[in-house]
Amino acid sequence: MVRDYLIIGAGPAGLQLAALLERDGRDYAVLERGSGPGTFFTRYPRHRQLISINKVNTGYTDPELNLRMDWNSLLSDDPRLLFGRYSEDYFPHADDLVRYLADFAEHTGVRVEYGTEAVRISRSDEGFTVLDGGGRTWRARRLVVATGVSRLNEPRIPGIELADRYDDFDPDPAGFTGRRVLIVGKGNSAFETADALLAKAAVIHVAGPHSLRMAWKTHFVGHLRAVNNNFLDSYQLKSQNAVLDGTVESVEKTDDGRFRVVFRYARTTERLRELHYDRIIVCTGFRFDADVFDETCRPALVIDGRFPEQTSAFESVNVPGLYFAGTLTQQRDFKKSTNGFIHGFRYGVRALHHILGARHHGTPWPARPIGRAPEAIADAVVARVNRSSALWQQFGFLGDVVEVDGDRALYREEVPLAHVTDGGLGPAEHRFVVDLEYGPDHDHVDPFDVSVPRVRENDVEHAMDSTYLHPVVRHYRDGVLAGTHHLAENLENEWDIPEVHQRPLTAFVQACLG
């Protein structure tokens, strides 16, 4: 039997795509090596507190607006399948997400083969063949990999194999009582671990070659989150802990069972130093595991080999018919937007579903007609930016598109911006593309420094200099960028003041249409 689609992985992304395919009556199957959905979250994060926010009490009655503050729910028309029904904790427990994903799978009726591990994937002219661990063979015309980044990203350091690893160490803080601990890595997993050990360890050093980047400043939620940064307090207030800027050159085990570490500092005159620890934990993130693909369909990798390289349609650049969903798609917006996280890639998966429908099932990207008058176009854009959760969560990555040909105007929602400029929607005489963006230098501005001049709220004349999130509308004429308009930023993110937002946008659209 040759199916239209095989999805590898029943995590959040695999379930999201399967639910959409199931709704539309497509021919597919999901292969999941675990005994249930969301296997990754049965183990990670190791200290079990998620950093994806779950704000239940928003004051909104609009479910679409509530999704702006709900970073864990998958997309569904069923109000029972909202994560807020499973926990009211702002940073919920990972076990609650596992329960939620199990119920999502059951209620949507997705077809998942659990306990089925893909051990070899090959490709021929007829499509893809997947051999599972039980010796069964699965065939499909197209393959969607939604496995996430499942392999520990191990640094190339002599002796690092002697250290504990984030993926398998015992996280009980009691085991670190009175010990000197080195944590290799400067991401959220490293600081999550450091925070958990604060009360027990004697000394904790967190080490890495790059400067710390705070999520509240860069707006990339994968950078260090405030919920994990208590450790920085203990460092700056001289409580026996430190952040080391530099690289671990080597690790050796000494006769007394401790570790000798040669460390190269990044910014001191003392370039090399020998340091000693009782425990070392490697917390250096994860990477895509491509070993399952044979030579007929091995995808090209990028970003130090950590992610599969993809087109703007989430397809492998060198293996036709091989698509990716979920956190693997962060290759398209690496450390810029939110495809690495549920609240981002749930919309990316929906976009992939539309792409697959247009390419393989004769179903064009959904569109609704609107009035062609500049006022009607401006009103439609303002209504969407004030309400959309997808544009809010996938800032700088997804955009709404208004196509104007002759007397007809069509509105399409949530299209990857690069897919538009790559011609994925076909030709159009006029195309307006709207997304939400931070200013180009936003990550270099301290938002809490009152001495730094910044654009004022609702400042029409200087809207293009805004650093905070605001709508940007670009006009393409016959596929060529012809004009750009910024809507002034607003503290409440309500871009509907007539003289500030709507009238200037209407004038821009009118000028573009002549």
Topology:
Elements: E1 2-8, H1 12-23, E2 28-32, H2 63-66, H3 94-108, E3 112-114, E4 118-124, E5 127-132, E6 137-145, E7 151-152, E8 164-165, E9 180-184, H4 188-197, E10 203-208, H5 215-218, H6 230-236, E11 241-253, E12 259-265, E13 272-277, E14 279-282, E15 286-287, E16 301-302, E17 307-308, E18 322-324, H7 342-360, E19 368-370, H8 374-385, H9 390-393, E20 398-405, E21 408-416, H10 417-421, E22 430-437, E23 470-477, E24 480-486, H11 498-513
Parallel strand pairs: 1-2, 1-6, 2-3, 6-18, 8-14, 9-10, 9-14, 10-11
Antiparallel strand pairs: 4-5, 5-6, 7-15, 11-12, 12-13, 16-17, 19-21, 20-21, 20-22, 22-23, 23-24
Helix pairs in contact: 1-3, 1-7, 8-11
Summarize the model shown.
About 20% of the residues lie in helices and about 25% in strands. With about 525 residues, the protein is an alpha/beta fold. The strands form 5 sheets. Strands 1, 2, 3, 4, 5, 6 and 18 form a 7-stranded mixed beta sheet that branches.
